[in-house]
Amino acid sequence: MQAELKTEKSAIAIYIAMALVSLVGIGDAVYLTVQHITGESLRCTIVSGCSEVLSSEYATVRGVPLAAIGAGAYFVVFSLATLALFGYRIAGKLLAIVVGLMFLTSLWLLYLQAFVIKHFCQFCLLSAAVTTVLTVLVCLALFKRTKFSTRQSK
Questions:
Q1: DSSP letters along 3-14, please?
Q2: Could you say which of 7, 62, 69, 139 would form a disulfide bridge with 148 (CB–CB 3.0 to 4.6 Å)?
Q3: Would you say residue 103 has pLDDT above 70?
Q4: Contact 128, 79 (CB under 8 A)
Q5: pLDDT band at 150 (very low <50, low <70, confident <90, very high)
Q6: Cα–Cα dist 119/52, whole Å
């Protein structure tokens, strides 16, 4: 009983962390989307190359800013983490799929920045970092759930 309560509390903490981290991603992606739509130039303060990355052919998918797609993805993560927090088990499973796809996309976009565009955008790097943190949190949640299920079946 004590172990079950501890596992449940840690799962709650993980889902709260996921929701909060996804809010950082939403803020970043919405900012980039607004900048893209208004056509304003972004100023990089940490690395140089924001304009090159965000004006490249890879910044849109069929005319839709990639940042807008990212904002939608982060909103889905926020929603699923909130649902998982309230005990919807399917939300936890869907989180793993969505975050996994986001992580693979981030790896692809990092590759494009490094080897194709040959410039980096600090806002894109922030998004990749947020997605990496979400991936670690999803892995922790899966580990906790698997560990708890194994313990209960004994």
A1: HHHHHHHHHHHH
A2: 7
A3: yes
A4: no
A5: very low
A6: 7
DSSP 14-27: HHHHHHHHHHHHHH
Q: Rg of the Cα trace of the chain?
A: 18
**One-character DSSP codes across 110-126:** HHIIIIII----HHHHH
Decide if 81 contacts 22 (C-beta within 8 A).
yes
Tokens of 133: 């943190």
Residue 32's alpha-carbon distances to 36, 87, 101, 119, 136, in angstroms, are 6, 33, 20, 17, 24
Residue 7 has what pLDDT? Answer: 65
**Distances in Å between the alpha carbon of 7 and those of 46, 87, 94, 142, 146?**
40, 13, 20, 12, 11
Asked whether residue 85 carries a pLDDT value surpassing 60, the answer given is yes
- Domain 2-147 falls in which CATH fold? de novo design (two linked rop proteins) (1.20.1440)
What's the start-to-end Cα distance of the chain, in Å?
A: 14
Q: 3-state class of 65 per DSSP?
A: strand
